[in-house]
Amino acid sequence: MPARTFLRIFLPLAASGLLAGWVLSFARGVGEFGATIMFAGNVQGVTQTLTLGIYEQLYGDFDLALAIGVLLVILSGTVLLSYKLISSWRS
């Protein structure tokens, strides 16, 4: 009974807030640079994020850094557009 109440009442009421929180945390995670490079380090294949990949390739292979940057812009735009479409669809 509690699971049914959760799925039928609580989850639909909280869905827009949960989705907005996911979008905000995604945006924060994609843009994370300083804390990752300072505390986690930049170990390739272990702690390297896309923003650290751009930083590493900036002076080595600029075309690769540019491609990763474009990928991040497309990914972020897709997430934000999807959120906008889903939130307008639910209203």
What does the model show?
By secondary structure, this protein is an all-alpha fold. Helices cover 80% and strands 0% of the residues. It is built from 4 helices and no strands. It has helices at 2-30, 34-40, 50-57, 62-90. Helix 1 packs antiparallel against helix 4 (62-90). The longest helix is centred in the N-terminal third of the chain and has 29 residues, at 2-30. The protein starts with a helix and ends with a helix.
The separation of the N and C termini measures 28 Å
Give helix % range.
over 70%
**Main beta-sheet strand count, sense and barrel state:** none
Structural class: mainly alpha
Annotation keywords:
mainly alpha, about 90 residues
Describe the structure concisely for a colleague.
With 91 residues, the protein is mainly α. 80% of the residues lie in helices and 0% in strands.
Secondary-structure map:
Layout: H1 2-30, H2 34-40, H3 50-57, H4 62-90
Helix pairs in contact: 1-4, 3-4
